[in-house]
Amino acid sequence: MDHLCAMAVAISFGLCAPETTTPYFIDISADALPAKTSAPNAMGATAADLDADGDADLVIAIEYGSNRVLLNDGFGRFRETPLSGPSGDHEDVAVADYDRDGDLDLVFIGEDDQVLGYHLNDGEAGFSDVSERLPGRATSNTVVAVDVDGDSDIDLVTANAGLDFVWINDGHGRFSDESATRLPPYDDISQDIAVGDVDGDGDADLIFGNEDQNRLYLNDGAGHFAEALLPLRTTPEETRDADLADVDGDDDLDLYFANVRIFNADRDQQDRLLLNDGSGRFTDATATHLEPDDELTTSVAFIDYDRDGDLDLIRGRMGDLRAGRSDFGLLAFANDGDGRFTAAPDVIPSGTGANAFDIEVADVNGDGRFDLFVASRGGPDRLLIGLK
């Protein structure tokens, strides 16, 4: 660590306690993030430049409360700006320029009450509520923004309890439901979606993380998806987070499933790592590349925290489904360069705890190092500034 850098960051935020810093991160949550109000359950977040001032702002989906927009002052300090729109059981947010006017808009998805939110940006992070323009409702857990059909505008895909949605953009920010002709008709309970070109053909493929069998859908180039097989497990898994990252440095996207045992007592909580051969065929490397775990892993992030050229792993945990506690520490794992991960206990400040339902990686203070924002279901959210 650059000790002078760490000291300068600590002084600028008034931090002195040793538990707030390690050689890799300093926890500036209390000084940099506005306090939560009556709705503490942050479920998903995205970092993006909403007001076009060149820094990373934050959008946070709130369970049974008002969603939040936090604007960055350029140095990693955030202030909340009002966001009108429906309050509800929001689970996730997708940020993109849906109406192609040069700024970033917001779409929130809802679970139990199926409440949606669609907000158009005026270019300065002033948002107008146009939620009625979204074409359908379901019990939804995730929404992703992706150009499904290759026409250079941004479409939406949602992960539902039941049939999933593909909403196609007309190029002006209005969507039509084309799910029936574009996705296989599985009636899964889906919790997450990972997006990336896993087979190297230049289009966006989809991985659905489900409460039972996870699924890989390959894109035909025109936005129609067919299932491709993933390696089967002998015990079922309940996946909360699906992530794509090149963990072994061979220039293709590997697949990580973060697993829990919440709704199904027979599920194996061991996280899972699948290595890609470059053409979308995966091999299960869990036994050789991950340490055994029996944690409720609700979110993961890949970040080169030690700046050695490979992607390390941060795992977020949930310990209390009712969100009465939120003091469950993040776990860090170092990559050996070939995608094998070993526990790294000196990475995360010891006082940093959360019910971590999402982890965002972004450079929030403009120093060229990646930082971590942790959305916590209950208790304070966390902001860790990268030091190394």
Mean pLDDT, all residues: 93
pLDDT below 50 for ≥5 consecutive residues: which ranges?
none
Main beta sheet, described?
8 strands, antiparallel
Shape: globular
What is the percent of helical residues? under 10%
Number of strands: 30
Count of alpha and pi helical runs: 4
The Cα radius of gyration reads: 20 Å
The SS-based structural class is mainly beta
- Beta strand %: 35-45%
- How far apart the termini lie comes to 5 Å
Structural notes for this entry:
The protein has helices at residues 3-12, 29-32, 179-182, 286-289, and strands spanning 25-27, 42-48, 57-65, 68-72, 78-81, 88-96, 105-110, 117-121, 127-129, 140-146, 155-160, 165-169, 175-177, 190-196, 205-210, 215-219, 225-228, 238-245, 254-260, 272-276, 282-284, 297-303, 312-317, 328-329, 331-335, 341-343, 353-354, 356-362, 371-376, 382-386. Helices cover 6% and strands 41% of the residues. The chain is globular and about 50 Å long. The termini are close together. The strands form seven sheets. Strands 2, 3, 4, 5, 6, 7, 8 and 9 form an eight-stranded antiparallel sheet that branches. Strands 1-30-29-28 form a four-stranded antiparallel sheet. The chain is built from four helices and 30 strands. With 388 residues, the chain is mainly beta. The mean pLDDT is 93.
